[in-house]
Design a protein that fits this description.
- The chain is of the alpha+beta class and 400 residues long.
- The chain is built from 16 helices and 14 strands.
- Helix 11 (207-222) crosses helix 12.
- The two termini are 42 Å apart.
Length: 400
């Protein structure tokens, strides 16, 4: 157990151990490894941008190595151990988190913005959608009829259609749950009471208890973090998190500690491990919990990370789909990647090393990880383009 004061290096090792980087990757990834990883993280944030691979498939790869993607889908959607819900954005969560998120379902605001007014003005259609699911079983938006007198499509909205928005609203409110993912990742919804085990579906708890438990889980998954770090894990207002964190300290679940170089005090999970070293070598998805809260990434690693896919190309500093590279307990490089599936190539569109790293050792380790990612994606080779000061060294390592 770490002391009341942690060095920056100790904090990094605690954080990475909490995220599962304190152990070697298994030789063969089994379903139990995937279940254990999701539970350790508390959630997998969903993202379906397919420049490389949807990010939630890369997060387990970073910790476990190559695995069959269909096995993750089976773990999540064929059993009753996990479900989807709004947690840290749209996420896969253990079903026992359902009652902890219920207080947020009760005040859920429909998407797109302003769609609540449609729900209020079209009660009959909203109830019809629910009745169709009840009678027919899991349904996707394409299975539902159009609303009478209203255009099916919602102009300019990412959600696409009225049937989908109504299904999503029922889901956000906890009436429906995701039953499966179909072609194109389309969600099919069933009644939540039929998908979430009764013990969790029927359980009621107070908002305060739910917030304490969510923060306790965030601390377990982060190892150590400030109030803002832990509040962000489940998207909780910091002002509401602070008194709940004080409760957890009083109960002995957390310890308040100082971390060298951090302005604010931090909270340490009392069960956190502090290994003497971390031997990881992994590319991290943009929505990996290690890096998703950028202020924490900067504090822990001295790493300025931005996800620039929605930034106009001329204003990008690093690239479009940039992944940090973790080696040991440091973020030592970043690469802008794209899976060129027609050409069967993993393209490294840009590569950058952090100041002060040993370029040769980093290039060798990163080359090995890029080859592993390419193999997992069914790509034949890794091609490094010229952009970035680390591109030449990386290309040389890949030729060796």
């Amino acid at each position: 157990m770490p002391g009341a004061e942690l060095s920056a290096a100790e904090a990094r090792r605690v954080a990475l151990a909490a995220q599962g980087f304190d152990r070697p990757r298994p030789r063969r990834v089994a379903a139990r490894d995937l279940r254990r990883t999701i539970r350790r993280l508390g959630l997998l944030q969903l993202d379906f941008v397919n420049v490389l691979v949807p990010a939630h498939y890369l997060v387990p790869f970073s910790r476990l190595g190559a695995y069959d993607r269909s096995r993750l889908d089976e773990v999540v959607y064929r059993g009753r151990e996990f479900t989807e819900q709004w947690a840290h954005e749209a996420s896969i969560v253990p079903v026992d988190a359902w009652p902890l998120l219920r207080h947020r379902m009760e005040v859920h605001r429909a998407r797109p913005r302003g769609f609540d007014s449609f729900l209020e003005g079209n009660v009959a259609y909203v109830e019809q959608v629910l009745a169709q699911v009840r009678e027919r079983g899991p349904l996707a938006a394409d299975d539902l009829p159009d609303p009478e007198g209203v255009s099916r499509r919602i102009p300019g909205a990412w959600i696409g259609t009225v049937p989908r928005a109504v299904l999503e609203a029922h889901f956000g409110r906890g009436t429906l749950a995701v039953a499966e993912r179909r072609a194109g990742f389309a969600r099919a919804f069933d009644l939540a009471e039929r998908r979430v085990p009764a013990g969790h579906y029927r359980r009621r708890t107070t908002r305060e208890h739910a917030q304490r438990e969510l923060l306790r889980r965030a601390a377990r998954s982060h190892g150590v973090g400030t109030a803002a770090d832990l509040a962000d894990y489940y998207r909780m207002p910091v002002r509401e998190a602070r008194p709940r964190l004080a409760d957890l300290v009083a109960a002995g679940d957390l310890r308040e500690v100082r971390v060298d170089g951090w302005r604010e005090s931090a909270y340490l999970d009392v069960r956190a491990k502090a290994p003497a070293r971390i031997d990881a070598a992994a590319l991290l998805a943009p929505f990996d919990p290690v890096v998703w809260f950028r202020p924490r990434t900067a504090r822990l690693f001295g790493f300025d990370y931005r996800f620039e896919i929605f930034v106009p190309p001329a204003k990008r500093r690093w690239g479009s789909y940039v992944l940090p590279f973790l080696l040991g307990d440091r973020l030592v490089a970043r690469v802008d990647l794209k899976a060129d599936r027609p050409g069967r190539r993993l393209r490294v569109r840009a590569a950058y090393a952090e100041a002060g790293v040993r370029a040769g050792a980093v290039a060798e380790a990163l080359a090995a990880e890029l080859k592993a990612v390419a193999r997992r994606l069914g790509l034949d080779r890794v091609v490094v383009e010229r952009r970035g000061g680390f591109a030449r060294a990386l290309a040389a390592a890949l030729r060796d």
